[in-house]
Amino acid sequence: MRPRRIALNAAALAVLAVMIFPVYWMVVTAFTSTADIQSETPALWPAHPTTAHFATAVGADGFWTFWRNSLIVTGAAVLIALVVSLLAAFAVARMRWKGRGAFIVAVFAAQMAPWEALLVPMFIIARDSDLLDSLTMLTGVYFMITLPFTIVTLRGFLAAIPAEVEEAALVDGCNRSAAFRKVIFPLLAPGLMATSLFGFITAWNEFAFVNILIIKEQGKRTLPVWLSSFRDVFGADWGATMAAATLFALPVLVVFLFLQRRVGTGMIAGAVKG
Amino acid sequence: MKHRLLAAAAALVMTAGVSACGSGEPPAADPTGAGPAKLTVWIMDGSVTGELIKRFETEYEATHQGLDLDIQIQAWDGIGERVTAALASTDAPDVIEVGNTQVAQYSSSGGVTDLTDKIADLGGADWIPGLAQPGNIDGRQYGVPWYAANRVVIYNKDLFAKAGIDSPPNTRDEWLADTAKLDEGGDQGIYLTGQTWYVLAGFIWDEGGDLAVKDGDTWKGALDTPQALAGLDFYRKLQALGKGPKDADEANPPQHEVFAKGKVAQMISVPGGAARVLEVAPGMKDKMGFFPIPGKTADKPGAVFTGGSDLIIPEASKHHDAAYEVVKALAGEKFQTELAKAMSFVPNKTSLAHVLDANEGTAAMAAGAAGGRATPNTPNWAAVEATQVIKQYMTAALTGKDAATEARKTSEAITSTLNSGS
Amino acid sequence: MPVAIHAPAPDADTGRRRPAPPTGRNGVRRDSWPWPYLLVAPAVAGGVFLLLYPLLRAALISFQHFRMGELIRGGAAFVGLDNYRELLATGEFWTVVLRTFVWTAINVVLIVGISTGIALMLVRLGRRMRTALMSSLALVWATPIIAATTIFQWLFQSELGVVNWVLTSLGLDSFRGFSWFANGTAMFGVLVVLVVWQSVPFAALTLYAGLTTIPVELYESARIDGGGAWQIFRQITFPILRPMFALITSLEVIWVFKCFPQIWVLSQGGPDGATTTLPVYAFKIARALHRYDLGSAVAMLTVVVLTVALVGNLRRMLKQEGAET
Question: What would the pLDDT profile of B376-409 be if each residue is shown by its tens digit?
């Protein structure tokens, strides 16, 4: 068995290396001096590490504003989606009602929504409701983009919590909402975190709607727009571009690493459902 | 009713969003007039140096009490979509710069303020026709000419001296020979990206071809003619004498930044490109020279695309009168003179042409301007540019695909785009 | 593609099915009238106003003459099926449809195949190696799409990109200065690598979670019976995880089919349309040509195509969920 073990570990290492390399390369490039970036032979490790690229990225026009806007819009959208989907997920996972099946299918189907085709209708709706150039409309759109799968996900996590736990609380004299608050909610915390993280990643990425819903108030644009047009900002400065990408990925990565243990276990529990 | 309902619903759903982001936002400008008005002006990237635009802003605000001028530099990438959205919005930017190949499309779509009765006030009698005509639809003037420019070759004097070339080339053959000589060691003979389509257009015109031709009422793409293919062939030879990427245009990365590093002997650019080089590398001062794009024979410089911009005021601007004042200042003699000097552009009026007399770059441009040409004159041309078929054709042909086949395919695409209704 | 999400297996509610005396069928009380409806009301309201209503507007636009002028001035005229007729008459549309299917098939097969491999590997690994691999998967999963797309532009850059350097170092000299983004097939390949790379973590981690639920005894008895690794997978692992495979596959089909930002940022559907899938096509028509009517028609047909492709899945879902009511 020994050689097989070694082969297995070697294969695992290879997979790990391939998976992680692009992220690694982003961070390394961000710290590598421009001269080294432009040398014929790329160095796997920055020989002369520098933080100059980060200074360039952070110093670029409006970086902090875009960063803040992204955080506000994404945070608000995920928060609303979380509350709304928790209610819906509870109804789906714990209650019997006419139309439940149709609702579930509708939620699944909503994931097929052709969002790129809704740009123009959304623009018209925003214009007619006087919501152009406002982060509110953007928040609403992101809320809706994340909602279907936050419902699906939360429902999974809820279903993973045995009904007996809740029944027991009800028997103990709690009413339904108290049972939810005191028993279900704490058990659901990892699921809520995982779900919000997934929602966060999705909304954090979006840029097509920003381009059409935020017109005049450029101070209300968000980070992905800025990053996706990075060549206008930095030209051929790959160091600064990678620094910008790192800063863009950072909030998500930090939250993810911070929550990873709980998210990991929560995800498995949710996926497997006792 | 529908709108009210929707707004109410949106408000319901988004209450949290509102409260979350309400604090950080500046109070919306009061459109009814009281208080300082904020005017938004969109200027395209590369039109004006940062310094000049800052100065204009400061001076304009100083002479117009209570006016806040917000000049935003727009990237070319995706600009069509943004201008359309702006024209269709209810609170558009007040002044927008649009390219002279695109102004016809916007003007014919509605949403642009008709400035016909202001022509006299703006001194429109001697506007240069290449800018005034595209902004004029059915006798109504929508676009106000801003500036024109055509491409010249900007060269690095040091590298020319190093290669022992003491006078700029006069014909295509000399140009190729000199460029080959300059393409030595770490230096690039010329930095020409693979998708610089208006340079290709010039070469095609030199051969007697065109991008598209009109036959009766229908347009036909013409990249597959022998003349056009000969133009491409020359482009290919020239492009190979440097390291310009074959799959990008001159904005990615910005070619003036590449040139500023001092390892590139020539680039094809409007003369104002030199000013942008100096923004990045002030040390290049006095090291840059200009010559017209060489033609097939020494007596006639190469044909060039006359580029330029018009200014428009969207119908949806909430400050038409104030916006007009800004347009008037931007198109007026004082700013035109400064702009022409700083960027080496051709001013919007023939009567101002003299301000360029002492400028080496514009002298080269004026020599080339004799052979100035325009893109096919139809509002649908903007769509051809937007679909980027010509750029993709160039990349395909330069990276080894069969040029004739690709040219035929692309011409068909151009034909169908130009003949589709709007 | 939307970020990978954790999704439950379709039999999500089995946890509740254990007998609980005071309740009705399936172990859950039938709830009094208003509550379930009140609970889903906000979600339904959001869906109606922010998804259904815009979708209907898009559908309406697809039956109108709606271009730049109409967007700006309003007053679009109804033209019936003209846009659809125009679309279906062009060969390009069918090319794009075909390409989208090829694109989806290649990606989904690779994603599901590689993920299954990694999941099976994870089960067999020692604790430390497994944690390391799972963390790297999680890291990739959490990398935002735009950042990842930017990274790939840099990796595959023609002059300084590390991919060309590696290939050249391996003796493949034709890759010196090779323009990945200029060649249709190469561009397509880069996009496949990008999308597969981003999608594998979700599928692998979910499948791994599923694998851990299969009792070890099942494997042991199969092994005693002399089953090889492949037989065990076919006869035990796959049947048990079939619902999970079905769900992952259909989610990946949706996500890959609809995949937009990666393609748009990296290639804008080029070069020469080689990476134009249906969503990119719709966006391109609307944005570049200002043919919002035709773009909407493409989008409507996209929804139809996707629905048809997944109709079996949807029906199965409705039946299953309905049975529990």
Answer: 877 788 888 877 889 989 988 998 889 999 999 9
Question: Residue C147 is nearest to which of A20, A155, A248, comparing CB atoms?
Answer: A248
Contacts of C152 in chain A (CB under 8 A): 22
Pairwise CB contact (< 8 Å): A97 & C260: no
Amino acid residing at B360: E
pLDDT at C8 over 60: no
- Mutate: best of A136, A146, A228, partner B, most B CBs <10 A: A136
For residue A271, give how far its alpha carbon lies from the nearest alpha carbon of chain C (Å).
5
Domain ranges of chain C: 77-323
Residue (of B268, B278, B273, B351) closest to B305 by Cα position: B268
Contact present, C128 and C136 (Cβ < 8 Å): no
Cα within 13 Å of Cα(B67), Cβ side: 21
Select from A9, A70, A96 the residue whose CB has the most chain C CBs within 10 Å, as the one to mutate to test that interface.
A96
The pLDDT tens digits of the residues spanning C85-106 come to: 988 888 888 999 999 999 999 9
> Does C154 reach chain B within 8 Å, measured CB to CB?
no
Nearest of C165, C244, C213, B53 to residue A156 by alpha carbon: C244
Q: In what order do the strands lie in the sheet with B144-149?
A: B67-74, B37-44, B95-99, B307-312, B144-149, B346-347
Q: Are C287 and C268 within 8 A, CB to CB?
A: no
Distance from CA of B414 to the nearest CA of A (A): 25
Q: How far is CA C132 from the centre of its chain?
A: 26
Cα C312 from Cα C305, distance rounded (Å): 13
Tokens of A197: 């993280």
User: CA C191 to CA C197: how far, in whole Å?
Assistant: 10
Instruction: List beta partners, residue C78.
Output: C64
Q: How far apart are CA B140 and CA B107, in angstroms?
A: 9
| Phi, psi (deg, nearest 5) at residue B153 | -95, 125
Is the N-terminal amide bond of C21 cis, ω within 30° of 0?
no
CA distances from A81 to A201, A207, B292 (A): 13, 19, 61
The set of chains that have 3 or more CB pairs under 8 A with A is B, C
Domains and CATH numbers, chain B: 36-149+307-363 (3.40.190.10), 152-305+388-419 (3.40.190.10)
A130 within 8 A of B31, measured Cβ to Cβ: no
Superfamily name and number for A63-272: MetI-like (1.10.3720.10)
- Cβ atoms of A273 and A156 within 8 Å: the answer is yes
**What is d(CA A158, CA B188) in angstroms, rounded to the nearest whole number?**
64
- Non-local CB neighbours of A24 within 8 Å, separated by 6+ positions: none
Q: Which of A125, A136, A235 sits opposite B14 (nearest CB)?
A: A136
Mean residue pLDDT across chain C: 82
- C91 in reach of chain B (CB within 8 A): no
Side chain identity, residue C212: T
**Contact between chains at C35 and A91 (C-beta distance less than 8 A):** yes
Q: Which residue of A has its CA nearest to B255?
A: A235
Report the pLDDT value the prediction gives residue A259, as an integer from 0 to 100.
Answer: 65
Query: What's the pLDDT score for residue A142?
Result: 93
Proportion of chain B above pLDDT 90, given as a percent: 39
Whether residue C20 and residue A163 make contact (CB cut-off 8 A), yes or no, is yes
**Which of C49, C69, C271 faces B110 most closely, judged by CB atoms?**
C69
Give backbone dihedrals phi and psi of B74, rounded to 5 degrees, phi first. -100, 140
Question: Counting runs of H as helices and runs of E as strands, what totals does chain A give?
Answer: 14, 0
Strands (E), B3-143: 37-44, 67-74, 95-99, 136-137, 140-141
| Domain ranges, ordered by start, for chain A | 1-50, 63-272
Topology of the domain comprising C77-323:
MetI-like fold (1.10.3720)
